[in-house]
Design a protein that fits this description.
The chain is an alpha/beta fold and 439 residues long. The chain has 14 helices and 16 strands. It has 2 domains: 219 residues, Acetylglutamate kinase-like (Carbamate kinase); 140 residues, VC0802-like. It has an 8-stranded mixed beta sheet, sandwiched between helices. A 6-stranded antiparallel beta sheet has the order 12-13-11-14-16-15. A two-stranded antiparallel sheet has the order 5-6. The chain is globular. Bound molecules: adenosine-5'-diphosphate, aspartic acid and magnesium ion.
């Protein structure tokens, strides 16, 4: 069985949804198709939740009406027959009815997750109506029946696997399943999600759960490019990446993949393909255990990073000092991305600033703490062999006019990370592109 995930832009217009239906019926091999919400919908739902949290009911009401207007036009174009359109209208009535009820009840934080879930519930139900109209046999299943996360917000892969397998076994005659990306149930049995961009993660968890033969991530670009195409011109797709390389790129900012979506596939050696819904014939990127060259593959950038320096001439070399520092971050469940040490100071970076003030307060017990916000990690990824000469030279040659705040090299053979002030991000990405890829 294959898992095919289509992102927001791939289902965001009626014609694109038609195209998705064509793509998934090109052959009869069994498939689970995972869909995101229509592009823009999750952002609007997020805004609705924020307005409600701030007590602005009338603004939330206005956003809900505008969104309904968008969906009214969408189904008019998506569907041809009156019967299908009236089915789709009932679906819109149900979900927009739900949003309108939320307007009337007293607000609590858990409602935000219910609001966000409406996007994927709508896209999959509307797609199922379209498939039915086209007489394409398919079964719509609910990810809320099998996608589970625990108290730590980590997926319960074994439960996902047993529940999903049971659902599939109940439909022996079906070889096309449609399921929602992003949404899941948490340990309290409430609706939750896998964080923004999480439909990729759904696809890879589903793939791992059923030991799929392949996971395909269909999006609006022809694979993982060698640099961020939103910032740099003349980027190009990379034909092959190893799981480790893809994970580094996703974690360090390549938006095409959710950062967590590699490990489930890697664990069960399931190849991932990144493909373009708008150009299905393009080769895209294949991600597997093998990496074809010992060279620089791609560059990614992760913004909104804070660098924290702890300076303590007295204690730094003392046994256990780093442990004490790490424990502070562990207590606040805040991951550290980069770390460098000198004799008198240690510098590290975080991107989750939820507990920054408390963290600083505790670190001040160990020394002088300095924080630099608005930093960007530039991550250069490839299959670097330590004996290979000149790689570092090339990178620093490209960046000779840019002040570099931190450098991390040697932690893995796939990644060289640099920290720069975000002001220099664009310049750094462009210069690295032209120096490292001869553009
Ligand atoms: P989807 O809605 O299908 O999940 P996303 O918007 O999440 O799509 O991801 C696709 C986008 O990721 C592309 O349109 C592109 O702008 C952006 N992107 C950022 N870095 C890269 C990269 N290195 N390679 C390809 N796309 C990238
Ligand atoms: N719809 C969700 C989002 O926009 C999940 C996804 O598209 O991957 O974040
Ligand atoms: Mg995405």
């Amino acid at each position: 069985m294959q898992v095919l995930k289509f992102g927001g832009t791939s289902v965001g217009q009626p014609q694109r949804m038609h195209q998705v239906a064509n793509l998934i019926t090109r052959d009869q091999s069994p498939k689970i198709v995972v869909l995101s919400a229509l592009s823009g919908t999750t952002n609007t739902l997020d805004q609705i939740g924020n307005e409600l949290a701030a007590g602005n009911k009338s603004k939330a009401q206005q956003l809900i009406s505008e969104l309904r207007g968008h969906y009214d036009l969408f189904i008019a174009d998506l569907l041809a027959s009156e019967t299908s359109r009236s089915k789709a209208e009932s679906i819109l009535d149900e979900h927009f009815g739900f949003l309108n009820v939320i307007l009337k009840i007293s607000f609590n934080e858990a409602l935000i997750k219910d609001i966000l879930a409406q996007g994927e519930l709508l896209s999959t139900k509307l797609f199922a109506v379209y498939l039915e109209e086209q007489e394409i046999p398919a079964t719509l299943i609910s990810s809320l029946d099998f996608m589970k996360i625990n108290e730590e917000k980590e997926p319960e892969l074994e439960q996902i696997s047993s529940k999903l397998t049971a659902i599939i076994d109940n439909h022996q005659d079906c070889n096309l399943f449609i399921a929602q990306g992003f949404i899941c149930k948490n340990h309290r049995g409430e609706i939750d999600n896998l964080q923004r961009g999480g439909s990729d993660y759904t696809a890879s968890l589903v793939g791992a759960a059923i030991k799929a033969s392949e996971i395909q991530i269909w999006t609006d670009i022809d694979g993982m490019h060698n640099n961020d195409p939103r910032v740099v011109d003349q980027t190009f797709p990379i034909a092959e990446l190893s799981f480790d390389e893809a994970a580094e790129l996703a974690y360090f900012g390549a938006k095409i993949l959710h950062p967590a979506c590699i490990w489930p596939a890697q664990k069960f050696s399931i190849p991932i393909k990144l493909l373009n819904t708008m150009h299905p014939e393009a080769k895209g990127t294949s991600i597997s255990h093998t990496s074809i060259s010992d060279d620089i593959k791609a560059i990614a950038a992760k913004d909104d990073i804070s660098a924290i320096k702890i300076k303590s001439s007295r204690m730094l070399l003392a046994y256990g000092f780093l442990t004490k520092i790490f424990e502070v971050f562990e207590r606040y469940k805040t991951p550290i991305d980069m770390i460098t040490t000198s004799e008198v100071a240690v510098s590290l970076t975080i991107d989750d600033k939820t507990h920054l003030l408390k963290i600083i307060e505790e670190l001040e017990l160990f020394g002088l703490v300095e924080v630099d916000n608005n930093q960007t990690i530039i991550c250069i990824v490839g299959n670097f062999v330590s004996q290979k000469k000149g790689i570092v030279n090339n990178i620093f040659g490209a960046l000779k006019s840019i002040p570099i705040r931190m450098i991390s090299y040697g932690g893995s053979r796939h990644n060289i990370s640099l920290l720069v002030d975000s002001y220099y991000k664009e310049e750094a990405l462009k210069k690295l592109s032209s120096h490292l890829f001869d553009l």
